[in-house]
Amino acid sequence: MKQFYAQHGHAIPDDFIDHCYDHPDQPYQARKSWGCGTWFIIGIALWVLISLLHK
């Protein structure tokens, strides 16, 4: 499956392939967790936005 999609220019994550084999009758839901780095970037962006609005 991975080779087929790679030939067409698409990258398929391994957990998607595992899910398709293990649970073919259930739709796949990507598991995206927000780590500390993401919250740090959001915090910086909010700080910049708030500081620009107060000028």
Architecture overview:
- The chain is an all-alpha fold.
- It has one domain.
- The protein has three helices and no strands.
- The protein has helices spanning 2-7, 14-22, 36-53.
- The N and C termini lie far apart (54 Å).
- The mean pLDDT is 79.
Q: What keywords describe this structure?
A:
single chain; 55 residues; mainly alpha; 3 helices; elongated
Number of domains: 1
Helix content: 55-70%
Q: Which range does the strand content fall in?
A: under 5%
- Cα-based radius of gyration, to the nearest Å: 19 Å
Number of helices: 3
The succession of helices and strands, N to C, reads HHH
Count of extended strands: 0
Overall shape: it is elongated
Query: Which structural class do the helices and strands define?
Result: mainly alpha
List the uncertain runs. Answer: none
How much is the average pLDDT? 79
Q: Span from first to last CA?
A: 54 Å
Largest β-sheet summary: none
